[in-house]
Design a protein that fits this description.
single chain, alpha/beta, 8-stranded mixed sheet, 13 helices, 16% strand
Length: 365
């Protein structure tokens, strides 16, 4: 593929900005233009040297693009498609970055753009949003699912797959139906379950909040994703409801089965239930490339004395290690270390371990 292609972005937030940064890094000769309703984001991208041209509307400037990325909120896709269609050249490839693919594929078909569209879902992200938080390396070693329309020429698929791989991501081709079912199972359903568990505790807790007080152990870990954006998950449930509902039915039936085994004290069945889950869970690849982001944290044994926590924070700050969260672990039922420190990136773990270990601290993963 050529190195001096032209790439357009409609929307330049966290994902759009990160893809644009990666393209600029790996293809410095490329020409990148972008439209966003947030002028500050466009001004920052110009100042950073990420984009060459800032646009105040979707217009003629997009006619020279080899690739156009739809990175605005999915609710704007229909409106943006109607605008961009008239300016796309016949050999321009259109793609998106949404986490649900059925709706966009139906809109693409209705717009008559099936021969020029490959759906995209980079399985990377952050709790922090907007262009200001975009990173060149956000896509590194992350799965990037591609859902090409049936009418797309194979060469276009191969070229786009090569582009995505060259940015450090791992391209994976699925149909849009497969994508929505898979992500419903491994991402959407877990978010529903986590939120329902949190709400169960909220309703079941005593007036003194005893459950909430001691939920800092395993419960807090398995429900971490319940802190995600309620607006985003509302929209995902509305756009991928059929798959989520079907999997919820399966999950409810599995809960009913295990409830029966608990009620009848079925020792062997209960053992098999937990053992099979343990074996399968331990076979997972320990990577952060899935749809639910890995938490990058370590636990540290510290003395129960004034200034102990501050000393850790100071050591890390002096070594330019950015801390996402830090706090005392009161519930140590399943974990070693009294102080938990969470980082924004995996690289922070290794650097912190080396520095703190050299100073005599005992570190637990």
């Amino acid at each position: 593929m050529k190195n001096d292609f032209t790439c357009g972005f409609i929307g330049l937030g966290l994902i759009g900005g990160s893809i644009a940064r990666a393209i600029r890094e790996f293809y410095p000769q490329s020409h990148i233009l972008a439209y966003d309703t947030n002028q500050d984001a466009l001004n920052a991208a110009i100042a950073d040297g990420v984009i060459n041209l800032s646009l105040s509307s979707i217009g003629e400037a997009f006619s020279g693009c080899d690739y156009i990325f739809l990175c605005a909120p999915v609710s704007e896709n229909g409106n943006n498609l109607s605008k961009i269609k008239k300016y796309m050249s016949s050999d321009c490839l259109l793609t998106d970055v949404g986490s649900v693919k059925t709706d966009i594929h139906k809109q693409i078909e209705a717009a008559g753009l099936s021969s020029r569209f490959i759906g995209g879902h980079p399985m990377a992200g952050s709790e922090r949003t907007g262009y200001i938080n975009s990173k060149t390396l956000l896509l590194q070693n992350a799965y990037y699912i591609l859902t090409p329309c049936k009418e797309i020429p194979q060469k276009s698929i191969d070229d786009f797959k090569e582009l995505i791989a060259s940015l450090g991501a791992i391209p994976l081709i699925l149909t849009y139906e497969e994508h929505d079912y898979v992500t419903a199972a491994i991402s959407h359903l877990p978010h529903v379950v986590a939120a329902s568990l949190v709400n169960l505790i909220r309703h079941s807790d005593s007036s003194g909040g005893i459950m909430k007080m001691i939920a800092a152990g395993g419960f807090k870990d398995i429900t971490r994703i319940a802190s995600s954006s309620p607006v985003m998950w509302q929209q995902i449930c509305l756009t991928n409801g059929e798959n989520i509902s079907g999997l919820l039915d399966d999950y409810i039936q599995s809960l009913i089965r295990i409830k029966k085994e608990i009620d009848r004290a079925g020792a062997e069945s209960l053992y098999q239930f937990f053992d099979q889950a343990r074996i399968y869970r331990d076979s997972f690849i320990d990577a952060s490339s899935g749809p639910i982001k890995k938490s990058f944290s370590i636990r540290i044994d510290i003395a129960d004395e004034p200034g102990a926590l501050a000393a850790i924070a100071t050591i890390l700050a002096l070594n330019q290690i950015n801390i996402k969260n830090i706090g005392i672990t009161h519930n140590r039922e399943q974990a070693d270390g009294v102080l938990q420190v969470e980082f924004y990136e995996e690289s922070g773990i290794k650097k912190a371990e080396e520095i703190l270990s050299a100073k005599g601290y005992v570190i637990y993963p």
